[in-house]
Amino acid sequence: MIKPTMMAPDFSADAFYLGNKITVQLSSYFQDWIILFFYASDFTFV
């Protein structure tokens, strides 16, 4: 389990940016403050 003081594991994911599909990698934002937001693709509540 990742705790608030721990670094998140590196990963890459597809994303849409300015209408284009790109691949982003967490390690490319190493020294920046970021917020990771994950959600179901259709926002369905289970």
Describe the secondary structure blueprint for this structure.
Layout: E1 12-17, E2 20-25
Antiparallel strand pairs: 1-2
Overview in brief:
With 46 residues, the protein is an all-beta fold. 0% of the residues lie in helices and 26% in strands.
What does the model show?
By secondary structure, this protein is mainly beta. The protein has one domain (1-46). The chain is 0% helix and 26% strand. It has no helices and two strands. The protein has a two-stranded antiparallel sheet. Strand 1 and strand 2 form a beta hairpin. The two termini are 23 Å apart.
Overall geometry comes to: flat
Question: What structural category do the secondary elements indicate?
Answer: mainly beta
The tally of strands reads 2
Helicity range of the residues? under 10%
Features:
46 residues; two-stranded antiparallel sheet
